[in-house]
Amino acid sequence: ISGYSLVVQARDSGTPPLSSSVTVNVDISDVNDNSPVFTPANYTAVIQENKPVGTSILQLVVTDKDSFHNGPPFTFTILTGNEEEEFTLDPHGVLRSAVIFKHMVSTEYVLCVQAKDSGRPQQVSHTYVQVKVIEESIHKPTAIPLEIFIVTMEDDFPGGVIGKIHATDQDVYDVLTYTLRSEQKSLFKVNSHDGKIIALGGLDNGKYVLNVSVSDGRFQVPIDVVVHVEQLLQEMLQNTVTIRFENVSPEDFVGLHMHGFRRTLRNAVLSQKQDSLHIISIQPVAGSGQLDMLFAVQMHSGGFYKPAYLIQKLTNARRHLENVIRISAILEKNCSGLDCQEQHCEESLSIDSHSLMTYSTARISFVCPRFYRNVRCMC
């Protein structure tokens, strides 16, 4: 407890008694009675041979229960094990290589490291760091090609995470880093540590082929990443049909079923090969395991097929569609649960283009806007 606040009252013996109060603040001064604490108590680290001088090996983590003026900054010193000066330790507790290590020369080093706090008198703690030198990488990284589909309203894409590259390496201790060709960084970014792909705002309609690579420090491997951007037209929203699937998650639909279902759906509803199928959004149905897929079909001439026509086509082809995935319902309107009696049921569909949903799998990522249905009875 760093302090107390007391209210002290003095009261006399007169009639009536009179009193007065005063606040007394008592500050507790900290004494440097806690030593720095390493977390964990001892360390094990690995470095591959032939890594350049200055390679980061380990970050030491130290805490101190004393107040700030008796704790950090800490002073780090290698006490033993560094007689040949193979290592350096910076003021932030980062252990780095000072030589190029060779696995044939030595496979292991044990360092005794001291941390000293800033109090008076200073308190110290020690930890042991075991550094293993392993052979350099012998396996190239492997990465899965990624295809990303982005659906957005016209010129209204807000940007965000659109997918993640999945890469592996058979060398146990390899650390993978991801890079993107510099001239593409005006539209996209790739997180160098985890391979997440970020699209910046304002993407135009079209196809983008990203020049991404993954490196383990020795080998660099290119990754095929293709981004398709489709901008919605307002007219599409007035001619949508919803297919509701049973017991499927968005990620499973995207990763396992979307390509096959899209192909089967095209065969079912397209009257001409030049017609275009547009999957506008997929969205879980709240409180259930169901999934809604919103789509429209554009004619070669530019207009859109009416929902009633598409539903007729879907009804006729439902058996073929269910060879791919189980369908719960085919919806044009969402009025089935609303009793309008003799009134007219009116449904409106709205798209929130700033609330994007990203369904990412190892091979396919689908980014689409959230949609809302408003249903009401009209005279």
Q: Can you summarize this structure?
A:
The chain is 10% helix and 46% strand. The chain is mainly beta. It has three domains: 37-134, Immunoglobulin-like; 142-229, Cadherins (Immunoglobulin-like, Sandwich); 232-378, Alpha-Beta Plaits (2-Layer Sandwich), CATH 3.30.70.
Structure description:
The chain is mainly β. It has 3 domains: 37-134, Sandwich (Immunoglobulin-like), CATH 2.60.40.60; 142-229, Cadherins (Immunoglobulin-like, Sandwich), CATH 2.60.40.60; 232-378, Alpha-Beta Plaits (2-Layer Sandwich), CATH 3.30.70. The protein contains 4 helices and 26 strands. It has helices spanning 234-237, 250-269, 307-316, 318-321; strands at 3-11, 19-27, 37-38, 43-48, 56-59, 62-63, 75-80, 87-89, 94-97, 108-116, 124-134, 142-143, 146-153, 160-164, 167-168, 177-180, 188-190, 196-199, 206-215, 220-232, 241-245, 276-284, 291-298, 327-331, 344-360, 364-378. The strands form 8 sheets. A 6-stranded mixed β-sheet has the order 16-19-20-13-26-25. The chain is flat and about 85 Å long. The mean pLDDT is 90.
Secondary-structure blueprint:
Layout: E1 3-11, E2 19-27, E3 37-38, E4 43-48, E5 56-59, E6 62-63, E7 75-80, E8 87-89, E9 94-97, E10 108-116, E11 124-134, E12 142-143, E13 146-153, E14 160-164, E15 167-168, E16 177-180, E17 188-190, E18 196-199, E19 206-215, E20 220-232, H1 234-237, E21 241-245, H2 250-269, E22 276-284, E23 291-298, H3 307-316, H4 318-321, E24 327-331, E25 344-360, E26 364-378
Parallel strand pairs: 4-11, 13-20, 13-26
Antiparallel strand pairs: 1-2, 3-6, 5-9, 7-10, 8-9, 10-11, 12-15, 14-18, 16-19, 17-18, 19-20, 21-23, 21-24, 22-23, 25-26
